[in-house]
Amino acid sequence: MSDKNALIQPDRGEKAIAIHLVDKQGLEDFLKGLSAGQRAALEASRFDGSGYEFAIMPDGDGWAVVAGVADANALSSWCMAKLAEKLPAGTYRRVGGEPGPAAFGWITGQYSFDRYKSEPEEEGPRILLTGEPAQIDALTAEAEAVMLVRDLVNTPAEDMGPAQLEAEAENLHRSFRAEIRVTRGDVLERDFPMVHAVGRAAARSHAPRLIELEWGDASHPRIAIVGKGVCFDSGGLDIKPGAGMLLMKKDMGGAAHALALARLIMAANLPVRLHLLVPAVENAIAGNAFRPGDVLRSRAGLSVEIGNTDAEGRLILADALTRAGEDKPELVIDFATLTGAARVAVGPDLPALFTREDATAEALLSAGRAVDDPCWRLPLFEGYREYLKSDIADINNAGSSGFAGASTAALFLDRFVPKDIEWAHFDTFAWRPAAKPGRPKGGDALGLRAAWHMLRQRYG
Predict the structure, then answer these.
(1) Distance CA 345, CA 410 (A)
(2) Is 369 tagged catalytic?
(3) Could you tell me which residues come within 8 angstroms of residue 362 by beta carbon, excluding any fewer than 6 positions away?
(4) Which of 240, 356, 377, 436 is catalytic?
(5) Alpha carbons 285 and 297: distance in angstroms, whole number
(6) Domain contains 133
(7) CATH number, domain at 61?
(8) Total number of domains in the chain
(9) Please, which residues have CB within 8 angstroms of residue 107's CB and are 6 or more apart in sequence?
């Protein structure tokens, strides 16, 4: 894609194409200030001020853009994104105000994933000027974090296995002088037995591992960010049908979110002691694959009966959450593409949010609303714990009923987070099945900005 750092630039009065943002309420007054030729151009385009519609009109010796928005006085992240996608390359300036939050969508609207195209489309950048240069770095960092998630999720599993997730963590280690530890092989089997069990059937090139990164002053509040890194999920011996595997390259979407959030935290030098954990595996099929009915020993010491090998994400997260809790952080946030039940409940656009405390939920929900990254809270209902009972072990990894699949998965994770630790779990889709302005079809970040802005409000 284009150089992201160049897409939003300080306004120094240079020549630029004018963009007029108009809502339906203000359209009549706007039209009164135009020339007859400009009004005729808009009428010919049937422009009525609807959101995401735009038209071109003459402007002196050149041309200008008139774009419809829901509310010209309260811009969203996405209200200028379609312009960034559709307008010709050039330099643009909003007339009568600053782009504000819309600058975020201006950047993400120019995202494309062309790694595998022999002839990528090169249209040149669309640059937006702003008179608020202090906001450029923060907005660009958030946009880059979202696009990092997209790049990682969009990359096929052959090129985005556990080793590649480790390489992403190594990049953070080098960029921010963080401490990194990677546990593999016999030590992984001993210390993180469920991560090892889920990933042991994969080829050696995709061998399982637990990736940890620590950064920041040890005297600052300790937080842990955990991301599910199932780089491909066949379902294991409870194999998925072919159609169910088509999107399973995205099953490391939780890890992508965690890596992107860690980058935001470190780049902003947020005063926290960060602990990033990514259990990275491929849930493959081979003679040594773990089986339905097996009983695994977890890092926490709890025994887990395997009711379904396709409920593997919660197994690797359980070991990682146990490790996170051992250092007594004050807050743990995990991201996981965990259940289809969450998608049935809240659809593809909303990550399902689970928290133990109402205050944690409200902080995340309100932060998400403020930055156009909405989330939806689902219940950690105590009555559903009985669905995870096992006749022969401490807990079963799969619910015994077809009900409340997202809640029972979250309740499974809850067993592995110490009760005195504040915890939030995002069951995120990490995928956009249909394009929207600023949000192309494919991998996407859902819940990332909500978590980031909550952390900024709390610690920044």
Answers:
(1) 14
(2) no
(3) none
(4) 240
(5) 20
(6) no
(7) 3.40.220.10
(8) 2
(9) 4, 7, 8, 84, 139, 140, 143, 147
67 close to 22: Cβ distance less than 8 angstroms: yes
Query: What confidence score (pLDDT) does residue 124 get?
Result: 81
Place of tokens 């200008």: 64
- CA–CA dist 330, 422 (Å, integer): 6
Task: Tell me if residue 240 is catalytic.
Answer: yes
- The structure's pTM equals 0.97
The domain boundary residue, chosen from 124, 155, 190:
124
Nearest residue to 317 via CA among 411, 423, 195: 195
CA distance 129 to 133: 9
Length in residues, the chain = 460
Q: Cα–Cα distance between 34 and 71 in angstroms, integer?
A: 20
Quick one: tokens of 77? 């992240």
Per the structure block, which two tokens stand in for 199?
């990933």
How confident is the model at residue 444, as a pLDDT?
A: 98
In order, the DSSP letters of 300-337 are: TS-EEE-S-TT--HHHHHHHHHHHHHHT--SEEEEEE-
d(Cα 290, Cα 334) in Å, to the nearest integer?
A: 24
Look at residues 344, 341, 349, 451 and name the one whose alpha carbon lies nearest to residue 407.
341
pLDDT per 10-residue tile (average), the chain, 460 residues: 72 97 97 97 96 96 97 97 96 97 97 92 89 95 98 98 98 98 98 98 98 98 99 98 97 98 98 99 98 98 98 99 98 98 97 98 98 98 97 95 96 98 98 97 98 97
Structural domain span for residue 278: 141-459
Q: Of these residues, 150, 314, 432, 449, which one is catalytic?
A: 314
Q: Across the chain, which distance is largest between two alpha carbons, in Å?
A: 81
pLDDT at residue 5 in the model: 58
Coil/strand/helix, residue 158: helix
Strands in 152-272 per DSSP E: 179-183, 209-215, 222-227, 229-233
Residue that has been written with the tokens 């396709």 in this structure: 310
- Rounded Cα–Cα distance for residues 265 and 277 (Å): 14
